[in-house]
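Researcher: Here's my situation. A collaborator sent me these components and asked whether they could plausibly form a single complex. I don't have experimental data yet, so a predicted model of the whole assembly would be a useful starting point for our discussion.
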Amino acid sequence: MIIRRPDDIPSSEITSEAHYLARREFIARAAGLGAAFVGATLLGACGTRDGAAAAARGGPDSAGATPLDDKPNSFEDVTSYNNYYEFGTDKADPKANSGSLRTRPWTVEVAGLVKSPGRVAIDDFLKPHRLEDRIYRHRCVEAWSMVIPWRGIPLRDVITRLEPLPSAKFVQFTTLLDPRQMPGQQRNVLDWPYTDALRLDEAMHPLAFLATGLYGKSLPNQNGAPLRLVVPWKYGFKGVKAIVKIAFLDRQPATTWNVAAPNEYGFYANVNPDVDHPRWTQSRERRIGEFRRRETLMFNGYASQVASLYQGMDLRRNF
Amino acid sequence: MFALCLLPFAHLTADWLAELGALPGWRSSLGPEQIHATQLRTGLWTLRLLAITLAITPARELFGLSALAKYRRMLGLFVFFYVAVHVATWTWADAGFDVGYMLEEVRKHRYILVGMLGFLLLVPLAVTSTKGWIRRLGGRRWNRLHRLIYPAAIAGTVHYLWAVKKDTFFPFVYLGLFAVLLGYRLARTVLERRAPAML
């Protein structure tokens, strides 16, 4: 993980442990990339993507969780290989079919157990926040992964601003429902509109993020424009796209994939190499652009930051 | 016909050469997940060619297209060729030739188990596809052995169905297709047995 701020860090913001570790990781990664560059040069003809990745592959860093070769996938990869059933079930469909989505004007509804529920234009919703860049690993439940440089706002800042009531325990996100703009919704592949949710303490974790862009540009439609949830320690399907509603609830709501296949997709959906999908393995994954599969890391490599959220829980039952 | 069956493989080869930068001017259509695309493509061509192979007998009997019969064995061998590439990609790219991992995967995941079963059923058919083996076994026994293609077709389709995450439209299309092709044979056998009584 890398957290980079466009401007000076305000003095009020004391560096947290996560930030400190991220900085260490950044330095280690920079060194790794340097080694990769030298390695690729030395490898000469065979210094392709695989060669560079192999050269960059080192041991875990001092945080004990993160390998050193997290080179972001290309803009092309990130924006042309997407799971977004609202635009079709093939990975190439979202890019091909999402041109019909209009992301302005766009209204976000804030609902439920919150100080002032209501509907806000997206630009007013975003205005109080400063955009940050974060490079996160993205692990799909289908056992492939990418590294994506997101731009957006920490979810906890948004939640703090919205002031949920003490009775609020869960946050639910809902995607737009409009079969004309989202042709995939004309087929009942899933129970539309798509919804998913987090426990409030998960949502308040500093890593949880609302993306409005990637690669320093505004979010392409196929990646969830204009507003998309990113929870890097969970499987990608938790990342609700094209959000039109954020609701604070006192009990755990139903979630789209859990309703579709309760024994395959749980509410938590934390990346866990020890708990297989009933039909396929989760112990390994293919990083897009690599040939061989790599080992999947607990909580997608963010265990040192997020494991405490699940202390005492049976992760096999709460998958 | 031979060249036609080779076309998907030629396309795959061209795409891979383009991925490796060895074929300037050709645009690969494998997308960012080239291995998965390769597996999907070879798997689908296995099922397609299998369906065509199984369609030859009905085409001959119903529409008198006997000229097709001579292609049946070659088509069957192409089925095996594509499934072999499909399995090889898994063995190499997914399992890294790790036998322990492969056995564990087969044991743990029914879609891999049923797929492997379908592949293994096709191995004896490919081995005995030569003229020498037909002679050695005799036409009757050879024909009986080669009925293994029926369970292999079902195994391959169920493998596809179980591997798909949610959108099962195409697996069911193939399942329907094989149900018709196998159902035709079943109906014919039943009718042939009844026919003498009706005379």
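Model: Some features of this prediction you could bring to your collaborator: The first helix of chain B runs from residue 2 to 19. Chain B has nine helices and no strands.
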